Amino acid sequence: MELSLLLIKALIILAVFGVTLLIATYSTYAERKVAAFIQDRVGPNRAGPFGLAQPLADAVKLFFKEEFVPANANKFLFIAGPSLAMLTACMSSAVIPFGGTLIIGGEAIHLQAIEVNIGILYVFGIVALGVYGIMIGGWASNNKFSLLGAIRAASQNISYELAMGMSIIALLLVTGTLSMRDIAAQQGEELFGISGMNWNIFYQPLGFLIFIVCAFAETNRVPFDLPECETELIGGYHTEYSSMGMGLYLFAEYVNIFVASAVMSTLYFGGYNFPFMDQLGLPHNVVTILGTVVLFGKIFFFIFFFMWVRWTLPRFRYDQLMNLGWKILIPLSIANVILTGGAILLKQEFFQ
C-alpha cells in the first residue's frame, strides 16, 4: 500500500509539472489570439487547425536557432540566468492544491504535489529567488541595457514584494494558517446557507486588490514591464539572448502568470470550492473532479485578465512605478492589516 501511495504521489507531481508546462505553452497562443481579438485581427491561423500548433512551431524555432554568447559575457552565469528563472518558476506550483481529496481503494489522495504547513512562505521564497535569474542574466550579458533591465527588475520586485507580503499578513489574520490546503478547505464552508462560498475575497477585498497589482509587478507584465521595456532598453535583461536562453526567459514569464493566477484563485476565490458543492448530492469523487475543473476555470480567467490588461493599458514611467509601490500600496497594505486586526478584535469582543 505504501508503494502504491508513493506511485500515486509521483504521478500527481508529474501531472502538476506537465499541466504547468502545457498551460504556459498554450498561454503564448492565447496571448496572440487575445491581442488579435482586441486589435480586430485574426492572429495565428497557419500552423495546424486554428493555429493550434503555433506554440510547437515557436518552440522548434527557438530550439534550432544559433545559441549566441557575447564575447565579453560571463559564459557560466549567462547560461545559469535563464535556467534559474525557469527552475524557480516551475517549483512554485508544487504546493498549490488543485483539488480536494479523491477516495481510491479506501485511501484519501490529495490533489497536490507536496503539502507543507508553510505553503505560502514556500511560494514567496521561491518567487523571491526568481529575480536572481533576471539579475544574473542581465549582469552576465555585459550589456548596459541588460544591466539596467536587471537593476529595474530587482528594485521593482523588492518594492512590490513588501506590499504583497503585507496583504498576505492580513489574510493570515483571517485564516490563521500558512497552509494553502487549509486555506482552500476553510473556503468550502457555508456562507449565508450556501456551501463552498466562504471565499476570502469577501473578507479581504482591499488585500486582494493590492495582491493582484503586486502580482502584475512580480511577473513583469504591462503596465509593470519596465525590466524589458523595449522602447527604452531594446529588450531589457534578455537583450543579448537568443535560442533557448531567450525561450526560457519568455516561458518562465508565462509559468509565473499561471502560478500567480492559481495562487490568487486559491487564496481569495475559494480554490477548488464552488457554490452548492455539498448540496448537489453527488458522489465525493465527482465533486472533487468538478472542483478541479472549477479551479482551472478561475485560473484561466485570471490568465485572460493578465493578457487583457497587457493590450489595454500603457506602460508606467519608472517614477510612477516607484511612487505606486512605496507611497500608495505599502501604506494601503499597512492600513489593511490594522483594519483587519481591529475587526478581528471587535468580533472576539462582541461575539464571545
UniProtKB/TrEMBL annotation:
<feature type="transmembrane region" description="Helical">
    <location>
        <begin position="286"/>
        <end position="308"/>
    </location>
</feature>
<comment type="subunit">
    <text>NDH-1 is composed of 14 different subunits. Subunits NuoA, H, J, K, L, M, N constitute the membrane sector of the complex.</text>
</comment>
<dbReference type="GO" id="GO:0048038">
    <property type="term" value="F:quinone binding"/>
</dbReference>
<keyword id="KW-1278">Translocase</keyword>
<feature type="transmembrane region" description="Helical">
    <location>
        <begin position="6"/>
        <end position="26"/>
    </location>
</feature>
<dbReference type="GO" id="GO:0016655">
    <property type="term" value="F:oxidoreductase activity, acting on NAD(P)H, quinone or similar compound as acceptor"/>
</dbReference>
<keyword id="KW-1003">Cell membrane</keyword>
<feature type="transmembrane region" description="Helical">
    <location>
        <begin position="160"/>
        <end position="180"/>
    </location>
</feature>
<dbReference type="GO" id="GO:0003954">
    <property type="term" value="F:NADH dehydrogenase activity"/>
</dbReference>
<comment type="similarity">
    <text>Belongs to the complex I subunit 1 family.</text>
</comment>
<feature type="transmembrane region" description="Helical">
    <location>
        <begin position="76"/>
        <end position="104"/>
    </location>
</feature>
<dbReference type="InterPro" id="IPR001694">
    <property type="entry name" value="NADH_UbQ_OxRdtase_su1/FPO"/>
</dbReference>
<keyword id="KW-0830">Ubiquinone</keyword>
<dbReference type="GO" id="GO:0009060">
    <property type="term" value="P:aerobic respiration"/>
</dbReference>
<keyword id="KW-0520">NAD</keyword>
<keyword id="KW-1133">Transmembrane helix</keyword>
<dbReference type="GO" id="GO:0005886">
    <property type="term" value="C:plasma membrane"/>
</dbReference>
<protein>
    <recommendedName>
        <fullName>NADH-quinone oxidoreductase subunit H</fullName>
        <ecNumber>7.1.1.-</ecNumber>
    </recommendedName>
</protein>
<dbReference type="Pfam" id="PF00146">
    <property type="entry name" value="NADHdh"/>
</dbReference>
<comment type="function">
    <text>NDH-1 shuttles electrons from NADH, via FMN and iron-sulfur (Fe-S) centers, to quinones in the respiratory chain. The immediate electron acceptor for the enzyme in this species is believed to be ubiquinone. Couples the redox reaction to proton translocation (for every two electrons transferred, four hydrogen ions are translocated across the cytoplasmic membrane), and thus conserves the redox energy in a proton gradient. This subunit may bind ubiquinone.</text>
</comment>
<keyword id="KW-0812">Transmembrane</keyword>
<feature type="transmembrane region" description="Helical">
    <location>
        <begin position="116"/>
        <end position="140"/>
    </location>
</feature>
<keyword id="KW-0874">Quinone</keyword>
<feature type="transmembrane region" description="Helical">
    <location>
        <begin position="254"/>
        <end position="274"/>
    </location>
</feature>
<keyword id="KW-0472">Membrane</keyword>
<feature type="transmembrane region" description="Helical">
    <location>
        <begin position="328"/>
        <end position="346"/>
    </location>
</feature>
<keyword id="KW-0560">Oxidoreductase</keyword>
<dbReference type="InterPro" id="IPR018086">
    <property type="entry name" value="NADH_UbQ_OxRdtase_su1_CS"/>
</dbReference>
